[in-house]
Amino acid sequence: MKSHALIAGLFLMSSLASAQTPPTPPDAEKKPHVVKAPFGAERQDEYYWLRDDSRKDAAMLGYLNAENAYADAVLAPTRPVQDKLYEEIVARIKQDDASVPYRDRGWWYYSRFETGKDYPVHARRKDAPGIDALSIQQANAAGDFAGEEVLLDVNQLAAGKDYYSVGDYEVTPDNAVLAYADDSNGRRQYTIRFRNLATGQAYPEAIAGVSANLVWADDNKTLFYVENDPETLLTVRVRKHVLGTDPKLDPVVYEEKDDSFYMGIDRTRDERYIVIGMSSTVSDELRYAPAADPREFKVLAPRARDVEYDADHFGGRWVIRTNDGKATNFKLVTAADGATSRKDWQDWIAHRDDVLVEGFELFDGFSAIAERSGGLERVRLLKPDGEEYIKADESAYSMGLDVNSETDTDWVRYSYTSMTTPATVYELNVKTGERRLLKRQPVLGGYDPANYVTERLWATARDGTKIPVSIVYRKGFEKNGKAALLQYAYGSYGMSMDPGFSVTTVSLLDRGMAYAIAHIRGGQEMGRRWYENGKLLHKKNTFTDFIDVTDFLVKEGYAAPDRVAAHGGSAGGLLMGAIANMAPDKYRVILSQVPFVDVVTTMLDPTIPLTTNEYDEWGNPEQKQFYDYIVTYSPYDNLQAKAYPAMFVGTGLWDSQVQYWEPAKYVARLRDLNTSNEPVIFRTNMEAGHGGKSGRFRRYREQAEMYAFMLERLGVE
Known about the structure:
Keywords: Hydrolase, Protease, Serine protease, Signal. Residues 1-19 form the signal peptide. This is S9 family peptidase. By secondary structure, this protein is an alpha+beta fold. Among the domains are: 28-77 and 562-716, 3-Layer(aba) Sandwich (Rossmann fold), CATH 3.40.50.1820; 451-558, Rossmann fold (3-Layer(aba) Sandwich), CATH 3.40.50. 20% of the residues lie in helices and 31% in strands. The chain is built from 14 helices and 37 strands. The protein has an eight-stranded mixed beta sheet with strand order 30-31-33-32-34-35-36-37, sandwiched between helices. A seven-stranded antiparallel beta sheet has the order 7-8-9-10-11-12-13, with no helix packed on it. The protein has a four-stranded antiparallel beta sheet with strand order 3-4-5-6. Strand 30 (452-460) and strand 31 (466-474) form a beta hairpin. The chain is globular, with a radius of gyration of 26 Å.
């Protein structure tokens, strides 16, 4: 067998030599390897050798580079379309845009971009008479940065790096010291650094191997952070660091022994407490200590299986969102200071079968509740004189609470978007009803929402369940069964994929395509039961829902049966692998990003990041019941000798959530079994992790490449 380096060179030569001679895809070597389950089940995994935790194995890297070279050769003819798509997308972006400022401890905080640069500048301005969110936005838009204090210029920090990200930053309560956590390879193992904001001087200490979650104590010198396990990346310990001391001596505040739990830290709404939150798929536990003297952390309520809760403190009491007492869609309860048990909880907002409580925000004179009903988000305002709902402007939309940093106000900020309306931030006066537009995402290039139509549809699944679908297309679109369609979904972890605006989707709509989001089971769009009916031993509902939505859209004339593309990423990539096996003839092309496609092997290995925390999402295949079910849908295990559609599979070498070897093995086995002549592209980003390359423009290059491939396969001009 030729070396992968030689193959890569031959690919490049062949692409230059003759466009009529298609390049030959890489042929990964097979090496027998048996994966065993504790109860005796065995599976053959001939490409297991592609796994390398160090990311340094020469043979593995050679194979990935060969696949990249093959992708370059196959996609070379689409380069003009790639360039055109990229130019269109970037032309819609206001390059010197900025976020809506919010006020905190006497300063207005915001992030802004500079023209031509990839990374944000995080900054703040001192509060003063006449200064507000609108005036700062106007100054930023005019390029007037007088009085601005730059906290982090991420462009400078990222200079010379292939990947760079600031995951979190926090300023001390006295506004004097900045702590920030950065990642330089995409693996989400962060390093904490410190800076004196008065002098700009960096502190000498750095703390590596942590999550991007930072909280200061009231003494302005003690920082709490979460330490990761270097192998599994699980959040295992909370430590505290005192400025000017050796990080190696940082004491452990709390250590989590159960590896099915994640951990995070925060401050409460009233700033009184520092909290440590532990969360698994099916239970939670919160510990709290006074921010002024955080030496002892009390348990708010001990963890119990199937009891989930999160809490905030304000107005002298705890407000807790929980499913306790069979409150499937969650309810709100309260507890007094010093509470340490669920016995201390008192019902406040009752549970409803038709309304999912997703979150809340507490103010001095009112409360705002984030809810979901009928598959759509809404915000309920509880006031002394009654309650009301913030009104939506369209039939299919996304709405939620925005940054509300202040409690002593009559204004509540919320975000709003739809598949035609760019991301918008409003604030509403709960006393007068006045609504102010703080910002709408600028979309350049002549974009006009009036030229596009969005609909909310309902498809009937094979078991009779009604599946909500959000769809958008350009005016003039004919439902004559001839158009091309891109259908997207996720369908896992109870994550809802709500309809929102996308600057990249416009390029598809302007070419006559329709774009649909299938709100399938496994998400939480229709309430908590929607999630429960799409996980564990009900997981296949996720896949059949997606296929049934496709059939519905084709039947209703939104797409030609041979011009449907499917798109999903991560757990949505599992969805893509499953539908490719179950209904390959219904899709002309499948776009699969960082796909979770080898469910059995991954879930049998507790050393892989995320595995132990997700036994209650997928099931633990060490138990025969779950093994037998998972193995019937795991994409890698169900590849067969059949004609598969064209595919674009993408991954990142440093991905910490779905390891690169899953799609690598999947593509290698797919090539062995695929009987069609449709191309399979496997693109590995060698410098990135789960979210792709860093920088706002680089990711559009990647998306333009993927979309150009799709348009060519769908026959879209």
